[in-house]
Amino acid sequence: xxxxxxxxxxxxxxxxxxxxxxxxxxxxxxxxxxxxxxxxxxxxxxxxxxxxxxxxxxxxxxxxxxxxxxxxxxxxxxxxxxxxxxxxxxxxxxxxxxxxxxxxxxxxxxxxxxxxxxxxxxxxxxxxxxxxxxxxxxxxxxxxxxxxxxxxxxxxxxxxxxxxxxxxxxxxxxxxxxxxxxxxxxxxxxxxxxxxxxxxxxxxxxxxxxxxxxxxxxxxxxxxxxxxxxxxxxxxxxxxx
Length: 241
What we know:
Blueprint: H1 4-18, H2 55-72, H3 75-88, E1 91-92, H4 115-126, H5 130-140, E2 152-158, E3 163-170, E4 176-181, E5 188-193, E6 199-203, E7 209-214, E8 220-228, E9 234-240
Parallel strand pairs: 1-2
Antiparallel strand pairs: 2-9, 3-8, 4-7, 4-9, 5-6, 5-8
Helix pairs in contact: 1-3, 2-3, 3-4, 3-5, 4-5
């Protein structure tokens, strides 16, 4: 089990990242009409200085910690993951994969991953350890964050060898982010195309946690694809900034 000092350092880093100076960024509200496409590839070089406000990347960090904690049965990793989630907050996005009928492809059972559900797992793994239980209680007592710039999240199920497709409008000249975190049952890939069908980002690791970031040259529509390379359905969370 990790020492308390390690938890404090990791949690402190998560808090510092989440409260770093904000940079204008993000997707347009759901339902925003798609702007007309311009010529060329809709991706720019980004600002000279690195972006400091990257909520989806930070949310992906919590997913990595959660996967690590579950694999190693380490409650401290789960607690830090929950602290990151509490610090960032999130907003539910009203989205569903394109072309999917309400009765098509039954959804996989399972509840959305939340800070509270992660803390419940950590409490079980703690097996009554007083210090870890105290940390769980302390994290559970953190006030939820409600502010602009939170990740916009949606949970869905992608079927074996299937692809879920979403269309999202991102603002020109500002950081755009998309991330997917699955339930661990299959390998997922994340691909992003602009409105001229150019591939602007591909994240294709060996897990079901993938992340993309890019700077659109103009405000435009992007196609986000969540591909399931496995033979089992995967209950995933899609997040955009």
